[in-house]
Design goal:
Layout: E1 4-7, E2 10-13, E3 18-24, E4 33-39, E5 46-51, E6 58-60, E7 68-73, E8 78-83, E9 92-99, E10 118-119, E11 123-128
Parallel strand pairs: 2-11
Antiparallel strand pairs: 1-3, 3-8, 4-5, 4-9, 5-6, 7-8, 9-10, 9-11
Amino acid sequence: QVQLVESGGGLVQAGGSLRLSCAASGRTFSSYRMGWFRQAPGKERELVVAISGNGGSTVYAQSVKGRFTISRDFNKNTVYLQMNNLKPEDTAVYYCAADRRLSTVAAGRPPRAPDFDSWGQGTQVTVSS
């Protein structure tokens, strides 16, 4: 498995911004796709965004398009999630995940949580109104 360590969550007012980071272990960082998921109390874990191994392709949930941006830093083996214009409905535990079996993402088939074999510990994001 890939070891994933997240950071950057916290409490922010509506309209504010946060940046989440996910540091991955190992030397094959560019060979697998990664994603950010979130899970609110009483709800299923949902995809926020996924990014291909080479960083060239992304798939966003409709609810965050235009507000969130994912990126990969290959020098630091780190994936970032920049979250702007946050809304109370963005409140959730955010998880970083890696799928070592695939490196690509396709808009027509967004990945699901069971597709990913490595997970971070989660970081809480709370947006107050």
